[in-house]
């Protein structure tokens, strides 16, 4: 294995394109990736530095990049190829990721161009630079344009790519073009439709990759396998046996460096329109006829269409909004949201939301889904809890009383990637009493192969052109159609300040959330 990588690196250092076959057992791709250039707009920004460049480095180490591949960073920040390489090396070193002797080979993949996003002439020049890079790296005219830029310039960047002729695809199948858009996909339904109109003016749907990195987490992908590859769970996966479903994404981080964005977005736009809705669909969707991107996304769209319209005239019965105040987290004092840098001292932006929703279809009629997400909570935890109904009749009531704890299945996503199932059994001894025991599966148990982080999986799928883990536009619009009336009511009602409940950092959110549903109580007691 080391001989292969050393030879590949030597060819790159010497300026030759590697002509080596990657051994199948060491390749994280399902097949050889097509040659291409990855263009990162916003290459000097936070997303590229924290996620994209480290992900590309890890893929390079694991043999997960195409043999003919190049990375072109673009941003307003003045840099040359060499300074961009030094910048990337420093990022990897500071993250403790730079190891081994393979940096020189990877650095040869890195290129940089200064780009003014508002200058049409700059995009014309970019086209010429890409043509030259295609010839140098033998990338066959295939391009991926990754918009790691603020959402406000998504539309303008896509417009200039299209008007400069960079969105077109060769009619004979050689030379494809793809655009990758990070969430948020708009600010509400109207803006989402406007963004889509601009994207589709120049790109066809198969060229557009709308990222939700939650979908690329291994345990999120495993939900469909768990449900539809096992005969013992799916017969119970319905209103007859399930009491409620709780989807929780709790964060310990505050707003950090994202105050400008978060003040405009809040928790409903930041988490519910994308991540929470995707976890809901994976839990609730019907089995597709085949595991193929369009069929899976068809079934997801059916879930969104089944969402019962939210009763905005009775918000208090279905929605709890909160904002974190000062508190103690991991033994240290942390400021409240309104004390964070860049946040208005009288901000009414919610950082916590718990929502009870229903699906009006045959499988789930009457089963509540509790969706909860918040910042500065007691622990970072993402999970889906399936609470089964209690036994219909307790034959043990004369000995144990009426209450017997119901079974619960928990699909852990973060920090513990695991599946746990609780059930009741008798305690050893002469006295008849029950105890709750747990069957536990750790996702990485008995696995020694490469583990891909979310952005590594996302980048691989972009290279392969696989849209399974990406949003389709009808899903985006259906979710905004559901959430926009809620947002409008919350942001225009006269008692907005009263509705926003303060909770101390390091807690499990406002006390009122415990009254709405059981999820935070179960989360807090460690179940």
Descriptive labels:
single chain, 527 residues, alpha/beta, 16 helices, 18 strands
Report on this structure.
There is one protein chain. The chain has 527 residues and is an alpha/beta fold. The chain is built from 16 helices and 18 strands. The chain has helices spanning 2-13, 46-61, 81-94, 103-107, 120-137, 154-163, 189-202, 218-228, 259-284, 293-306, 397-400, 454-464, 473-492, 496-499, 511-516, 519-524; strands spanning 36-41, 69-75, 110-114, 143-147, 177-182, 208-211, 242-250, 319-325, 327-329, 332-334, 352-357, 369-374, 381-388, 408-414, 418-426, 434-442, 470-471, 500-504. A hairpin with a 7-residue loop joins β15 and β16 (434-442). α6 (154-163) runs parallel beside α7 (189-202) and α9 (259-284) packs across α13. The longest helix is centred in the middle third of the chain and has 26 residues, at 259-284. It is globular. The model is unreliable at 17-27 and 520-527 (pLDDT under 50).
